[in-house]
Amino acid sequence: MSESRLIVPARYERIRQICAFVVEAAEVAGLDETAIFHCQIAVDEACTNIIEHGYGGEDKGRIEVACAAGSGQLTIDIRDQAQPFDLGAVPEPELNKALEETTVGGLGIYFMRKMMDEVSFSRTDGANRLVLVKRRTQE
After folding, report:
1. Which H or E element spans position 2?
2. With contact defined as beta carbons under 8 Å apart, do 136 and 30 qualify?
3. 40-76 pLDDT, tens digit each
4. What is the CATH number of the domain that holds 11?
5. What is the span of the domain harbouring residue 32?
6. Contacts of 117 by beta carbon, 8 Å cutoff, 6+ apart
7. pLDDT for 5-21, tens place per residue?
8. CA–CA separation, 27 vs 74, rounded Å?
């Protein structure tokens, strides 16, 4: 099991660095191109939400990302000290409605759940923790 950690200021320009860090760990885990892309999308969305909704803007905290790359599996652990967030309170998006009838938001979490094998959220000691797991598909 290979583990690595990255801590960056909560800035939009740092999301590219976080995604590159995750891609490197996904490659170590032996994930295919599609799985790596799914990890990138999920992490980009999570970090954007942390900055935008959690901290309410840039430079108000930091984002910690830890990756554990095992044989055919990547676990991405994202932590922040932003506002508490209840993953369960976000409703499923209404995908069958016309675009102009839908409410804004909620799609990012929907995509995370669809693209990753596991998505879990917890809050302890004033910190939010989002854990994303992606496994290599069996051929």
Report:
1. strand 2-9
2. yes
3. 999 999 999 999 999 999 999 999 999 999 989 999 9
4. 3.30.565.10
5. 2-135
6. 133, 134, 135
7. 999 999 999 999 999 99
8. 9
